Amino acid sequence: MVIKVFVATSSGSTAIKKKQQEVVGFLEANKIDFQQMDIAGDEDNRKWMRENVPGEKKPQNGIPLPPQIFNEERYCGDFESFFSAKEENIIYSFLGLAPPPGTKETEKSDATDAMEAHTEDKADEGAHEESQSAQPPSEDQQESKEEQAATGEEEEKQEEGEEKEEVEEQEES
Asked: CA-to-CA distance for 142 and 145, rounded, in angstroms?
């Protein structure tokens, strides 16, 4: 996968030049492979960039300004999107690349993966408990329940009898 950064090498705008330099400098510093595609000197590059920037990302005049960033044919974003991704430490996902080991973005995705796995484990445990409780009781469990019920009934009758005796004794006194 090749990152393509569409730039204008002969731009008259200082703001555009600075934005282009920031994107290119960041990619170089982080050893991310990319190609600079000049839209000032190559009409095909200019045409391709303009046709492939999604409509909702184009400015009101309909002509997107450089830098525009693509991963092969997939649109990644403009400078503002790039800057936001850089600030949030999600530049690799922004570019559609796997983050290298040891980066903050890798740690974030590892933590997210661990949380998702933990959540799935909890869901599995819950499903296992539900399936166990949905099973009919074994014969031993059923007998034990019946014994407890019978013992409970006997105790209730005994308690009722004792209460009656107490009431009768109080009435007599």
From this structure: 5
